[in-house]
Amino acid sequence: MKETFALKGNLLYTPACGQLEQHPQSYLVCENGQVAGIFAQLPERYQGIPVDDYGDKLILPGLVDLHVHASQYAYRGLGMDMELLEWLECNAFPEESKFADLAYARQAYGIFTDELTRSATTRACIFATLHRPATLVLMELLDRAGLPCFVGKVNMDRNSPDILRETTEQSLEETRLWLEQSGDFTHVRPMLTPRFIPSCTDELMDGLGRLQREFGVAMQSHLSENLSEIQWVSQLCPDTAFYGQAYERAGLFGGACPTVMAHCVWSGEAERALMKENGVFIAHCPQSNMNVSSGIAPIKRYLLEGQKVGLGSDVAGGAHLSLFRAMTDAIQCSKLRWRLVDQQTGALTLPEALYMATKGGGAFFGKVGSFEPGYALDAVVLDDSALPTTRPCTLAERLERVVYLSDGLPCAKYAAGRRLF
Ligand code: GUN
Ligand code: FE
Prior knowledge:
It comes from Flavonifractor hominis. InterPro entries: Amidohydro-rel, Metal-dep_hydrolase_composite, Metal_Hydrolase, Metallo-dep_hydrolases. Its cofactor is Zn(2+). It holds the Pfam family Amidohydro_1. Residues 59-388 form the Amidohydrolase-related domain. The chain is an alpha/beta fold. The protein has two domains: 4-62 and 370-419, Urease, subunit C, domain 1 (Roll); 63-365, Alpha-Beta Barrel (TIM Barrel), CATH 3.20.20. Helices cover 37% and strands 23% of the residues. The protein has helices spanning 84-97, 102-118, 132-145, 168-181, 202-215, 227-236, 243-248, 269-278, 286-291, 299-305, 323-340, 350-362, 395-405, and strands spanning 5-16, 19-31, 34-39, 51-61, 63-69, 121-127, 150-152, 154-155, 189-194, 218-223, 259-263, 281-284, 308-311, 379-382, 412-415, 418-419. The strands form two sheets. Strands 5, 6, 7, 8, 9, 10, 11, 12 and 13 form a nine-stranded parallel beta sheet that branches. Strands 3-2-1-4-14-15-16 form a seven-stranded mixed beta sheet. Helix 8 links the parallel strand 11 and strand 12 (281-284). The model has no long low-confidence stretch (mean pLDDT 97).
C-alpha cells in the first residue's frame, strides 16, 4: 500500500464545466494515489501523516494535453506562415523522417520528455512517428519520468514521401509487434494512431479496426481540421457523407475504446451527433488552428451540446507546450468567434477553460483532473509570488493571472500520488 500524505495550500479545481471550487489553506489528502478528501483541518484519523506544506502557493489538478506531437517538438515555432497541408509537406514530414535514426530519436525525445516533465502537464495523448523502435524509446523515456501518457506509433501508407511511408502490410505488422512490445511499461500505454485519412488507405484503416477489436486499445487521430484537408478527404472517400464516417466505417470512431479526435473545427451536425453518440473526445487545439489557418472551432457550442472536450497544444502546429497558453488561446479565440462568427453562443470563461484542461480532457484517462474523492491525485503547485500587485487579489484572480501571465512552470508536480519533483 502506498503511503498516505497530504498537500497543503490554496486548492482550486473545477468539479463541473464552468464551476470553480476554491479551498484556501486546505489539506488535500492522498491515499493509494487517489484523492481521499479536502479538509480545512486534518481529521483525527490523518493526524501525523506527512504534509507537503506549500504555504500560500496555488495547487491545481495536473493539466491534460489531449493532442501533442512529440516528434515535432524540436522545431516548434517554424514554418508558421504556411497552411496545414503545405506545412506538413515542408516541415512535419521531413522532420519526422529523421526518427528512423534511433540516436536522433533518443536525443529529440529526451528534450521533449524533459520539457513535458517540467511543465504543468501531467498526462498527454502523444503522437510519435511511424517508426516502431523510436516510438518505444519515447515510451521508455516517459515511463521513466513517471508521466502516465498514451503514446501512438503513427500509421501512414499513402500521400507522403518515400522516406515517411510504410506499405499497408508493414504498417499493420509493425503496429501489431509494437502493441505486443508495449505491455511492460508501468505508466505509459499505447494507442492506435492513424495519422489522418489522407495518410491511410481504406485497407489500412480496416486492418487497424481489427487490431483495435483484438487488443482493445484507445485511438487518436485528426478530424475536420482544415478546409483543404476536408475537401481532399471527400475526394479520397467519395462514398462517405462526412469526414468522421471514414473512421467509423473501419470501426474506429469511439464506442467500446476511448477515442480522441484533434481539432473538429468544421464538424457538421451529422459528425457531431455521431461523436456525441459514440463518446468521441474532441481535442481543441486553438493555437494550431490559428497558426496553420484552420479556423475557429465552435467550442462553446460543443460544451453546450454536451460533447467531451479537452485541450491540446498540438505542438508543433501549436508552438507552445504550455496548457495555460492553450487555455488563454481558447478563450481569446472564442471571443473572436462570438464577435465575428456566431452571436448565439458567448465566449469561454476561465473556469470553462480550466475545466477543459483538467477534468474535461482528464476523463479520457478515467477519474482524472479533479480533486473530488476517488480521482487520481495529479497536482501541480504554482508560485505566483513573482506576479505582485498593488492590491490583494482573490484566489480566483490569482489563478487568472497565473494562467494569463506566468510561464506556467510548477514548483512541484504529482501524478497518481507520486511526486515527480
Ligand atoms: N494532420 C495530419 N498530420 C498532422 C500534424 O502533424 N499536425 C496537424 N496539426 N494536423 C495534422
Ligand atoms: Fe496534430
